[in-house]
Amino acid sequence: MTKKYGMVIDLHRCVGCGACDLACKSENNTPVGINWASHTTETYGVFPKVSYKHTPTLCNHCEDAPCVRVCPTHAMHKTDEGFVVHDPSICIGCKSCMLADPYGVIFFNKEHAFLDFATDTSSAVKDGTFSKKELSDKAKAPFPNFNAARGADGYEAVRRKGAVEKCSFCNHRVAKGLSPACVVACPADARIFGDLNDEKSKIATTLRAHKPTVLLPEKGTNPKVFYIREYN
Amino acid sequence: MMQLLWDIRVSLDLFLGGLGVGAFLVGVILYYVDAKVYDGFVKKSFVIAPLLVIAGLLLLLTELGRPLNVIKTIYAINPTSFMSIGIFLQSAFVAVALLIAFKVLTSGVESLSSKIVYAGAILAGLVGLYHGFLLSGIAKEPWNNAIPVIFFVSSILSGASLMVLLNLGSLESLVTRFKLPLIINMVLTIELAAVFAWVYNLALTTASSKHAYDVLISNFSMEFWVLSILMGLIAPLAIFTLVILNKLSLKAVAIPTFAIIVLGSFFLKNLVVYLGQAV
Ligand code: SF4
Ligand code: SF4
C-alpha cells in the first residue's frame, strides 16, 4: 500500500515553547513574516478561572485540499504520499490558493527575500568579518535559497519573488527516512509523524487510542494534521 | 484587518471583461436580427469587445506575482481550477473576437461568416459565466453560487448600456423595434432577483454566512445599497418604468441612465471581490 503521511500533535504534551516554529524557520530559512510552522494562543474564562490554549499550526496537507483544487497550473499539487507541495517554477503568483486555503498557512513572496545576501558587500569590521554576500557565496547556497541541502537533493530550493510558499512536511527529509524538523525539535515529543496507512505505526496506533480532532472540520478539507488531548 | 490579496485590478478585469462580453453579445443579437440596418452598431460592438477584454486581462497580469509564467498554464491545465479553464476560454475568445474585429474593419460586417460569429457568441457566453465562477470556485462565503448569475447578467446589462451610449443615433430604431426600456427592465429585474437571492442566502443560512452579511451591511453598505443597488439597478428600473408609462422621454434620460447602469456594474463587482476577502 502506498504511504500516506500525517502528523499528530498531542496538546497535553505540548509546552508551548515554540521550538517547532524556530526549527522550521531554521530548516527552511523563512524570511520575516513567513512562518510555515506557527501557533495560535487563546486565553478564556474569568479570573480566577482562566484557561490558556496554545495550538501549534502548519499546513494540514489536506486530503481534499482547496489550494490544490483552485491552482491554475498544478504548482500547488499533491504527491502520491499525501504531501501537498508547491513548485515555484510554474507558479503564476495568482494567490488563488491563499484565498481558497481556510487555514491561512500559505504565504506570498512580495519582495526578493534576503536580497541583502546577494548585494550587501559591507562588513562590520573591515577585513575582519564576512559581508553578507561573502557569507552567502562561501556557503554555496543558491540565491535566494530556502534550503541549500534540499536543493542539492533535487528539490525546488529557490525562494522566488512573486510566488507563494508553505510547509512541505519536510518531504526532502522524509525521503531520507528522517522526520520533519519540527518533530525532531519538539522537546516534549508532542509531535508524531508517520504513515497513516501502516496500522502498526505509532501515528496510527495513537490515533486509534484517542479521539483526534482537526481544525475547521466543517470546511470538508480532510486534514492530515490531527490534534489529541488538551493542555488543561 | 482585511488581507487584500486581490485588489481593484481584479475587479476591473471582471468589469471590463464583462463589458466586452456584453458588448459582443449585443452585437451578435443585432447581427442576426438585421446586419444591414444595424451595421454601424454591430461594427462598433465587434471592435470594442476584444479591446475591453484585453484591457482587463492586461490589468490582471499586473496583479500576478509571476505573470510570465502564464504561458505555462497552456500545458499545465488543471481541470478543477476555474482560473485554468478561464485563461483558456479568454484566450480563445480574444483570438476569435480579434479575427472578427479585423474582418469587420477591413471588409465590413457583411463579410463575416455567421459561423464565426456563432463561435464568438458561445465563447463570449462562456467567458461571461467564467467571471463569476472564478470567484465561486474559491468558495469564500460571499462568493457563492449566485455570483456567476449576478456577474453574467451584470455584464450583459453594462455591455448593452455601453453600446447604446456609443450608438445614440440608433436609439429610436432600437426603441421602436425592440421596446428597449421594457427589455432592459426585464433584465434589471432578473439581476435584482439574483442579488436578492444572494443577500437572502448570506443573511439567513449558516453562522459564517450571517457573519459575511454583517460585514456587508456594516462595512460596505454605501457601495452595496447606494451605488450598486439604488444607483445601478433601482434608479434605472424606475426611470425606464416612467419612460414606458410615457411620463419621461427616453431621449432626455438615456445618457445618465445607461451610464449609471455601467457604473453600477463596476461597483457591484468590486464590492463582491472585496467582501469575499473581508470575511
Ligand atoms: S492547510 Fe491550506 S495550504 Fe495546507 S493543504 Fe490544506 S488548504 Fe492547502
Ligand atoms: S499562487 Fe501559484 S500555487 Fe497558488 S494558485 Fe496561483 S499558481 Fe497556484
From TrEMBL, chain A:
Keywords of this entry: 4Fe-4S, Iron, Iron-sulfur, Metal-binding
SUPFAM superfamilies linked to this entry: 4Fe-4S ferredoxins
InterPro entries linked to this entry: 4Fe4S_Fe-S-bd, ET_IronSulfur_Cluster-Binding
Molecular functions (GO terms): 4 iron, 4 sulfur cluster binding; metal ion binding
Domain (4Fe-4S ferredoxin-type): residue spans on this chain: 5-34, 50-81, 82-111
PROSITE patterns: 4FE4S_FER_2 (PS51379)
Domain of life: Bacteria
Short name of any one Pfam family annotated for the protein: Fer4_11
The name this protein goes by in its record: Arsenate reductase, chain B
Native species: Sulfurospirillum multivorans (strain DM 12446 / JCM 15788 / NBRC 109480)
